[in-house]
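Let us work through a complete example step by step.
Step 1: write down the sequence.
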Amino acid sequence: MRARTLDLYKLMDSRRSVRHFSKQDVPIEIIENVVKTASTAPSGANKQPWKFVIVKDPDVRRQIRIAAEKEEKEFYEHRAPQAWLNDLKELGTDWHKEFLEEAPYLIVVFKISYVDEGGETHKHYYINESVGIASGMLITAIHNAGLVTLTHTPSPMGFLSEILRRPKNEKPFLLLPVGYPAESAHVPDIKRKKFEEVVELF
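Step 2: predict the structure and record it as tokens.
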């Protein structure tokens, strides 16, 4: 058990958010398997309030990039407070989101607030918590597969519902480009907090 927990820690400690993707294809079975892993997550009352939309079509990825960059440009140039922009500087990000087309797949996570069955509406519980846990398991599964990703949350994200033709009970939660890293890919030299800073033992 000690060895397994240490091995998993070392694996996940090597995970980094990557913004530069190779155009190398990834077998769809790999993508399906990481989504299957995410779908094993616990959820409020076992309602499993999530939908994972896998996007491979380059035309659809192009549409998503155009719409996302429109929102991101507005964010960087008008919406974001200066303190937020200052915090983003060390990450080297801006409103250009080439990775939305470069990555061979996009996985868009939607949260489902309710379902209609036989004319009756049945709500879901702890939706954000449940979908957040599933998203974390998805990121872990992606890294375990030897692929890379980054969490992208343009605001607002309503364009994803329109482009992907989702019903009104589904709302976009997270957008993950997935693939192999580009040979020239680099990540910011940032540090994680020490164990002692994030843990209290009673």
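Step 3: interpret the result. Residues 19-181 form a domain with the NADH Oxidase fold (CATH 3.40.109.10).
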